[in-house]
Amino acid sequence: MGGSITLSQVQDKYPRHNLKTKLDSGGQKEVFKGEFDGEDIVLKTIIAEDWEATKRAELEIRAMKEIDSDIMVGLRQDFQDVIDDHEVFVMVEEFVPGGTLQDQLQEEGPSVELAARVGRDVLTVLQEFNEQDFVHRDIKPKNIMIQPDGQVRLLDVGIVRSIGEADTDLTPTDRPAAPGTPGFRAPEQMMNDKERQDTRTDIFSLGITMFATMTGVHPFDVDGMDLQEAIQAGTHRNLSDHFPNPDADGLQELEWYVHKMIETKMHRRFLTPEMALDELERVMEEIA
């Protein structure tokens, strides 16, 4: 077999999808941009090279079908095929215009208002994940899109976990692999403790994202420790230290809220996205 799937191969295979460019590549996944039936789309191919890759692809597709939310990227088509002797899963998704939250932070700087908006919308879709017993496990600024109209969208459920199902987190050599992005993984992810990963895992990652959106810095970026060590130890910055007036109305409540999201011990975090969303609304009223 050859290497990764190329743009020319998918162009030849799916001419009706009018594929123009490759957007991303990683692992066994290739991502292309095109147009289908008058709509801008993203076409993904995932090589089903082994049991793990097959299970991951099947779970990603199932999660996208079962999560009923406009905040999630929409799945238009999914099917299996063979490209250049590779058995592949093909996913056709809507194309989301705009830029990532990471891009917006770099261009416009930190914003409490933006952090609150991102928090509200991501917690709203995480309610759906929780109700369907899914854990996203990769909440971070790069996986959150901000559309030109301000709409927040959540991307990439490629490492989603289905609570209670058989383990799909083993590498081909059967060695445990910790899922998620370093610096945004909760302690239970870093330890690869799959049985403990639940909706509070996503709340932790969202808390880091919101802190960074409000301040422009990572909460666990502290002197003398790398991010992984600081997360495990629960050593983080104070939110109020990054505001000119630490006694401003509502700031102490906001600090309490974000610090609760990033508690190292799971039982100290918000139990559900619903609880976190209710408290966020209350805290933002205090600031207003």
UniProtKB/TrEMBL annotation:
Pfam families per UniProt: Pkinase (PF00069)
Domain of life: Archaea
Keyword Transferase: yes
Origin species: Halobellus ruber
Name used for this protein in its record: Serine/threonine protein kinase
GO MF annotation list: ATP binding; protein serine/threonine kinase activity
Positions of the UniProt region annotated as Disordered: 167-194
Keywords tagged on the record: Kinase, Serine/threonine-protein kinase, Transferase
UniProt cross-references to InterPro entries, sorted A to Z: Kinase-like_dom_sf, Prot_kinase_dom, Ser/Thr_kinase_AS
Residue ranges annotated for the Protein kinase domain, each copy included: 17-284
